[in-house]
């Protein structure tokens, strides 16, 4: 695809995000799409010579097997500047060095990003300048509102990309395709037929040396406030008439505005825990509080769970449980949709009467529909069977999709200003209750499934609830 020339300015170019995710993605994008005209300008406070910078870029490109004419052109022209990016005159010089329309990528700690926005307010940005911001977007709803106001004073909303790489185009399209292109799902996609929805992202990895960021964020902000709420919004949205940016983002916004902690109670609808020492697949992990850089007094959770309600005609009464944990025994990245029990089963049929469950695995991209079917050797006996299929995983790395959309001016997958604020509003009661210690910080051994008393899904809760509140 031939596109107008862009200059990607990475602020925080010697950081982790740039090396591990942004540069490999850039290399992959240029390899797949050599028609793009791109200049890369790195800026960070670390002193790096051009040779060092080039070696870093090439190292990251090699991880994505990047090659071809567009890659060679970018490597020949890339520059690096050792600067304090919070200083207006340095930012001015960076913008002056652009050979194409600037795309400013804030690969910076959130507090530094806020200072850069203040510094940019002193400059006149070139027409068409795009701003790309990473999560977390602010530290609470008020900070997100302030940051949005500052950004809107710089460029229009369409030129602001609040990055959420979790929901790549293929994941969104897989969810939308499964639900809307199959008559057996969409008519059932509501509180008449669905008992509970769980969105789970448990990983086996522990802190991995990221205390500087994670110890201040925790599992709630790192995963639920950002990524998992985006999954909920896509899963629960009303049918968008197109997959264009406005339709999809309007539909997601409607869901997020109607979402809140279930029953308005952080004490009953949120849980938190922190891992103690344990073993995962033969590797010994220290307790979280003994990891380098962790301040135990912060009480940071490594496993968080919120049960939410989406207060709409479609979803009233259905618990949405969002859970994410580190150092958990089994990796689980899935959406579990548990249907209500069959309304009636003839008395002669014994065996499994479990409800139908649709599992959508997010990595790898698979689906499995779990049903009751009659046994091969006993037609009176029902057993569990699963119909499985795999989705396309997509051709591009998640960050290649992010960068490609940014260069093409397509904000569909970016988080819109209102959604960024809503996501903080949704989690705020839990954050406040956790800070006030109204919800206990439980413990689980690294390598376990979490605290022993936590059921693995919301189904149990949904069943209890249904007993009290039949629909
Ligand atoms: P890092 O700390 O690794 O990188 C940030 C870089 O910015 C560092 O090199 C830092 O320099 C530099 N920097 C800080 N202040 C200034 C300044 N005033 N002028 C110039 N350079 C400065 O952070 P990450 O790369 O991990 O994260 C960046 C952002 O991306 C964060 O918002 C994070 O939440 C987000 N993110 C990160 C992911 C990851 O996997 N790393 C994944 C998803 C999002 P110094 O080292 O000297 O402080």
Automatic annotation (TrEMBL):
GO terms for cellular component: cytosol. Pathway: Carbohydrate degradation; pentose phosphate pathway; D-ribulose 5-phosphate from D-glucose 6-phosphate (oxidative stage): step 1/3. The keyword Hydrolase does not apply. Residues 9-174 form the Glucose-6-phosphate dehydrogenase NAD-binding domain. Residues 444-471 are annotated as: Disordered. GO terms for biological process: glucose metabolic process; pentose-phosphate shunt, oxidative branch. Residues 178-453 form the Glucose-6-phosphate dehydrogenase C-terminal domain. It comes from the Bacteria. Pfam families: G6PD_C, G6PD_N. GO terms for molecular function: glucose-6-phosphate dehydrogenase activity; NADP binding. Keywords: Carbohydrate metabolism, Glucose metabolism, NADP, Oxidoreductase. This is Glucose-6-phosphate dehydrogenase. Transmembrane segments: none annotated.
